[in-house]
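[worker-b] picked up task from shared queue
[worker-b] task type: protein-ligand structure
[worker-b] ligand name resolved to copper (II) ion; SMILES cross-checked against name lookup, match
[worker-b] sequence length check passed
[worker-b] input payload:
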Amino acid sequence: MKARLVISTLLCAISLPVQAHGDWTSARPDGHAPMGVMADHVHSQSEWMLAYQFTHMSMSGLRDGSDRVSSDEAINDYGYNAAPTDMDMDMHMLMLMYAPTDRLTLMIMAHYMDNTMDMDMGGGMTGTMETSGMGDSFAGGIYKLLDAERQQVLLNFGLSIPTGSTDETVENMMGMEMRAGYAMQLGSGTWDLMPGMTWLGQGERWSWGSQVMATLRTGENSEDYTLGDELRFTAWGARKLTDWLSASLRLEQVQFGNVDGADPEMNPDASPATDPRNQGGERTRLGLGANVRFSGPLAGHRVGLEIIEPVRERLDGPQMSEERTITAAWEYAW
Ligand SMILES: [Cu+2]
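[worker-b] inference finished, payload out:
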């Protein structure tokens, strides 16, 4: 009798937080995280969401550690044949979310990448390289562990599927095809596990959240290397300005490891971009964002924008330094 009481009390205590104060709501502009955060929310049972996101990242100049390195120094002091001066990465993402239950939301993502790199070839010569095509895909989900006191704790899980190519080539000055550098490739070439945790909180006018997410590479790709693992930690605060508009401030810390192994088609002395020792590092980034949630005839639609700049970089270098990232998205849920 006593045991039954203890068990039923325990069961009640476990299930209570989920049922009692399901107050956290996504039905406000800051009900979705700043646009640079992925997989930040779950949907109600049998709800769908389609999203398109465009991200433009610009990189400029080189750093070794935190210090600037000119392309002349990279060529004359470090001994590379050439050095990248600017890089632009455009990413188009299409995402579909579906919630089979109130606790579980499943998601798939596909990417299209367009990369451009300007090179200083030494002796006053310059060149431009371009790679584009489908990037890696993602399949995974978000499981709601806890929903109480206007807070949610979410478990993120997923798999990055190597649909992006790792054998992209570019033409050199002599018109010869050569393998593009690691950052110019469109995918990792490996199946990558992406576990994470997300915490969300909400007040009347404010909301906040944080997320930790890892990218863990498994095995080696067909070009004999493995990209470094990644760890991202981000925390944000958002202010609901009106029923349809919110503004956010977000801090992010990203750690990324070096390439393990090396693509034998790349000459590590050609440029820092093809040197497997110059791909790791860490970045602290600050993002300023705005979210809009439509109502009336446009109910279900959202748009958002986030502008992200690095405040600190420590790179295994010389390696390209990030200048600015702009990400804009449109979402529709039904
Ligand atoms: Cu969604």
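[worker-b] attaching auto-annotations
[worker-b] Helices lie at 2-20, 71-76.
[worker-b] releasing lock
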